[in-house]
Amino acid sequence: MTTDRIVTLRGERELVLRAGDLFAAAQHEFLCAAADLVTWSAGANAALAGEKRPPPPPGLSVRKLYTARALSDPASERRLVRIAALGAHVRICAAPLAHEAIVIDRRIAILAGSPVHGTRTYTVVRSPDVVEGVRSLFRAAWESAVDLADFRRARPPVLSEQARHILRMLSAGHTDEAASRQLGMSLRTYRRRVAELMVMLGATSRFQAGIRAREFDGGSDRA
Length: 223
Description:
8-stranded mixed β-sheet; alpha+beta; 8 strands; 9 helices; single chain; elongated
């Protein structure tokens, strides 16, 4: 459907081609609500994460709201941490989001529809009343959500058996060389896994990673 104030785009390619420039045009406020990091296309996600756009203008408020699905795997969690490090305020809401949307400068709303035969529609709305209504829904969900850092600290991480072995090595004070030999992995792989676990646990040091893992594991060494 297309009117002067409502345009419906079919598929991610059309979204990026016809509305991608809107993501980088925000000057005052950029709000994004999504269940996970795949609601929007790869091009849109790059714009949302600030990965392929110039530095935001001074004073731009960027708020991004996701459900816990956005932290369902280590790669997605690392990406969320990177988004927050780039200056966005990120929160996690416990309840499913009624609408997945973007609101830009209180002037434009982009609403993601449910997939139909594998294709999503994205509706670009410029009607002031509708935009303000979407923004109000976002603000209500935002107020009840939890800051990303707080959510990660409070949430027990899902640790694989390999991850638990690595954390035990850290707690025991083994060198990287000794630990990697005992675990049968290359030194490079071991160090990469340690870095990934630190991100997952929200730890700033290897020692803290070991302590936090034991806290979530009830203070025992059970698998």
